């Protein structure tokens, strides 16, 4: 979906158009689930977090001043929900919320295009490198958007992406 189309849908949904909000949900629900699985290995917690993210989005979408920031705002909201639910359920230490790639994420259709060797190499990377790779390549986010989602500077995103690429190259060649 093009950014202009997302912006129009967001503005329309902010005006109360339920069909526009439904289109946003149908367009972003799967990518949110995939990203959630990267953050947490508990599928039920991820599903709950995504559902709560959409509920929160429906309630507070009118507060979003910049429609072009919708995607970053949505992903950031999901990260906060997963952290909150993990703390409440005491299933995962909030300092380790970004778990390794799990079997569920590795078997999803989006990851099925990636070779087994590449999937194994990615699983050997650090958690933050996995997140940056996922957001950059699978969700096709810009560096600025990734920085907003992960709450880190753009320069840090660039260096982590570069480090992840070099580590992958080393793992695949070695």
Attribute tags:
174 residues, mainly alpha, 9 helices, 0% strand, globular
Total count of helical runs of at least 4 residues: 9
Mean pLDDT: 84
State the separation between the terminal residues, measured CA to CA.
38 Å
Order of helices and strands: HHHHHHHHH
Please, what is the oligomeric state? single chain
Structure class: mainly alpha
Total strands: the figure is 0
Radius of gyration: 16 Å
| Beta-strand residue fraction | under 5%
User: Low-confidence parts lasting 5 or more residues at pLDDT below 50?
Assistant: 91-111
| Helix proportion range | over 70%
The gross shape turns out to be globular
Largest beta-sheet characterization: none
Q: Care to describe what's here?
A:
This protein is mainly alpha-helical. It is built from nine helices and no strands. It has helices spanning 3-14, 18-39, 43-60, 70-89, 103-107, 116-123, 127-138, 143-150, 154-173. Helix 2 (18-39) crosses helix 4 (70-89) and helix 3 (43-60) crosses helix 4 (70-89). It is globular. It starts with a helix and ends with a helix. Residues 91-111 have low confidence and may be disordered.
Task: Write a brief caption for the model.
This protein is mainly alpha-helical and 174 residues long. The protein contains 9 helices and no strands.
Helix and strand topology:
Elements: H1 3-14, H2 18-39, H3 43-60, H4 70-89, H5 103-107, H6 116-123, H7 127-138, H8 143-150, H9 154-173
């Amino acid at each position: 979906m093009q950014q202009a189309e997302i912006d129009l849908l967001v503005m329309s949904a902010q005006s109360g158009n339920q069909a526009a909000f439904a289109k946003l949900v149908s367009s972003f629900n799967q990518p949110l689930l995939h990203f959630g699985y990267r953050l947490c290995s508990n599928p039920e917690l991820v599903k709950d977090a995504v559902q709560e993210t959409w509920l929160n989005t429906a309630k507070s979408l009118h507060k979003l001043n910049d429609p072009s920031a919708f995607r970053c705002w949505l992903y950031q909201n999901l990260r906060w929900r997963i952290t909150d639910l993990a703390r409440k359920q005491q299933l995962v230490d909030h300092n380790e919320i970004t778990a390794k790639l799990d079997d569920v994420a590795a078997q999803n259709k989006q990851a099925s295009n990636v070779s087994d060797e590449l999937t194994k190499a990615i699983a050997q990377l650090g958690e933050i490198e996995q997140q940056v790779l996922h957001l950059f390549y699978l969700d096709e986010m810009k560096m600025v958007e990734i920085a907003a989602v992960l709450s880190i500077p753009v320069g840090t995103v660039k260096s982590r992406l570069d480090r992840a690429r070099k580590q992958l190259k080393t793992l695949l060649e070695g």
